[in-house]
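tool=predict chain=A
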Amino acid sequence: MTGSIRLPKMAELVALELRRRIVRGELAEGDALPAEPELMAEFSVSRPTLREAFRVLESEKLISIRRGARGGARVHIPDGSVVARYAGLILEHRSATLQDVYAARTVIEAPCAGLLAGRRTAGDLDRLRAALAEAESLIGDPSAFIRAHLRFHALVVELSGNQTLIVLNGMVRDIIDRANWSHVDLDAGTEENVRANLSGLRAHVRLVELVAAGDREGAVRVWRTHLEKAHEYLLGSKPMATVLDLLR
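tool=predict ok
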């Protein structure tokens, strides 16, 4: 053999088992982990080893530690925020451009529109129409409108039902949202902004019509076109602006 096999530390094995219990739903949000003496006996480990395992899980945001008489370890279910933050750091380090991030958004969102059209329920359509009504009521307030607009985009991905695409969307959504807010704050109320908002709202209305009709191909086509037009407006003359430029 040319290499050596690294055996996991006992703390890593304890963290692995507790992590499994959390992701399998055996431990729910807000549950308290058993007391340290109980866990030490269960896993046959020392207190320092157990606390090292806790530090691993705490770094993954799967538990939080409270000090004091009512302290202890509390469980948090995975929500994707850790992955999203880390993905943002990687994109910053690689000097990823906003154009690159927007292209990824299209790759993720457009297929989701088709998936949604193929599986939509009456409840899904109710939620989409409620989101449309909210955005339409805010058309005169550019700042509030763009937030409602972005919530609609997130809803399309959520209702697609594809958990992998939902997670991937969460990884880029924070960057997309920041870029949109930044642009609208500078552009709010201009003729170009008003035109873009009305165009976006029409695209959202059309998507809901296609989803209601179960037209998967039409939904993908309309959503891709909408995203491409939105990206042209949002990027303007700065397609090479980087994620680091936006976040710093």
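The chain has eleven helices and two strands. The two ends are 48 Å apart (CA to CA).
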